[in-house]
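Appendix B. Chain record.
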Amino acid sequence: MAAALPLCAAPAAALAGPSPFPPDASLEVDAGRPGERVEVVFSDSGAHPRQQYVNVRSPAFESDDVVLGFTGRKYIGSAHLRRDLEPGRYTATVTSVTNQRKATLETRVEVMASASKTEHGFLEGTVAGTCGGAAVTLAAVYLFRRRRTRT
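Structure tokens predicted for this chain:
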């Protein structure tokens, strides 16, 4: 899973305008790279205890609806970011039906650029160089000791 980076570029209420959600309600989505799984959390202090799940939608997600399960205080789940996404910000929307009212809250999903081949190449080269150097050193020590015991 990607590193948990807080997402809120703007308060959710500011993005959605007036809302029947309590002022402390929030929708948060971790930032991530295309193809990664990110955590999605919806907090609603006015949640009805019978509402065991809510759906979150975003054009950034692989599936149409991401289902978040109720944990007693928050709705928590995860989503896979589409592999073909360009870096940028995408809208995520949660819809909740509480006390016969339907309410929608929005936030932004931050998609970062994929790791470049240069980054991987550098890392792979560094690991290979370190391991190769260690192997050469061990071989030299072995040969030195072996030669020493023969004389």
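Further analysis of this model is presented in Appendix C.
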